């Protein structure tokens, strides 16, 4: 997709209107369109997915002394907002295949200080949200979904990010719905949406009744970025289908490759194909992923050095107990990073490289 294809008329209006310090025409329209597209009462546009998570936890009252249950199978951006608020992240392990929480670990780690659980739909996959929401209700916890990589994923016919109290999304480059940078919240309760809009802009307008005065943040989404997001949202189904086709083509090319196991998503999940996923059943799988990255196949482990969040040094103070399943899942997962620019030729090249190197691999 070329930037020129993004309808310069869609950018002309917000650019012509600048400078306009109070301008929010594109942002307001984007919020209305997001709420309609994902069938929720409210959407709140913000400057990043991390900002969305920060505001979601803040409007739910998370603060010092509170605990938030977070998956170890996640990225630093998912956990950082908990720390920003002075709360404590409690890392929970995943099940052996990495598709959901390990509920034995979840139950073992909940305390009276827990106020929320934050599932992270890494690589666009999501676990059993019906089960998680029922469990959270039983323990009087809010569910905040980190759906930053899960735009277009459906779980039991519900869009990712719409089952919990608040769903959080990113529109950074590489996301299926992108604007260069940005994010948004999908919200069910009007007071939560109003509070998020207040806190994203230095407390203006003031938060609704029930919220004490707070120093807000500068988490506004710029008008030109909102215009780009609207242009992409208008063809979201096309962008989603393209990403799903890319992942399917890689799966078809690699299904019979020795040492590369391609799992099928469960029937309850309509996966968005955010990254092509395979299990590496070769010696030293992490080294193999790093080798592929050096050969031009971008992937989570080899390119971005993904490791379980509970093993990151910046969270060392919060990790008394390791989460072995998360480490094992990440250590053997090949998650190929896909973008709109990856045409069939490039996808075929990725597949050929992976298959060839799997046959040759000697760590």
From TrEMBL:
Entry protein name: Aminotransferase class I/II-fold pyridoxal phosphate-dependent enzyme
Pfam hit, one: DegT_DnrJ_EryC1
MF terms (GO), sorted A to Z: transaminase activity
SUPFAM superfamilies with a match to the protein in the record: PLP-dependent transferases
Keyword tags: Aminotransferase, Pyridoxal phosphate, Transferase
Similarity field: Belongs to the DegT/DnrJ/EryC1 family.
InterPro entries: DegT/StrS_aminotransferase (IPR000653), PyrdxlP-dep_Trfase (IPR015424), PyrdxlP-dep_Trfase_major (IPR015421), PyrdxlP-dep_Trfase_small (IPR015422)
Classification of source organism: Bacteria, Bacillati, Actinomycetota, Actinomycetes, Micromonosporales
Cofactor: pyridoxal 5'-phosphate
